[in-house]
Amino acid sequence: MKVRFEQVDSPEKEEAVIRAQSQTEDIKAAIDLLEGNERKIPLLKDGNNVFVETSALYYMESVDKKTFVYSRSGCYETRLRLYELEETLGDYFLRVSKSMIVNLKKIKCVRSDISGRMEATLLNDEKIVISRGYVKEIKRRLDL
Question: Could you tell me if residue 35 is inside a domain?
Fold first, then answer.
C-alpha cells in the first residue's frame, strides 16, 4: 500500500483519505486509530473496572476457569471467556492453544520445536507455546 503525507497550513484543512478496494480489518483499525476511537475492553484490576486498549494487549490465558489478560502494564482479569474475547478482539488476535489467545502484533519471533509445536517470543521477551493444532494457522497468518 502506498502512503502519502502532505503538510497543510491550518488545522481546518487536515483530513485523511483512505482509498481501498474493500474495508478490511486493517482499514477499520486505521480509521479507528485516526479518529481516536481505538477499541477498549473492560478488565478487572485489584477489584476495579478499567478499560484497556486492545492494541496494548499481549495475550489472554484461561487458568482454573478464570481468564487473565496480559499487557505491558500488568495482568488483568476478565469475566469474558476466551471464545468471547476471540469474537470481540478482531483479526490481530489468534488462538494458539486451547487456553490461550495471542496478539500477532506483539510477536517478536517464533521458532519450531522438535515435537511439532512452536515457541513464540513476545515483544516483552515472554515466551509462549503454540500447540501443534494451531501451528498451521499461525504460519499462514505470519506468512511463514
Answer: no
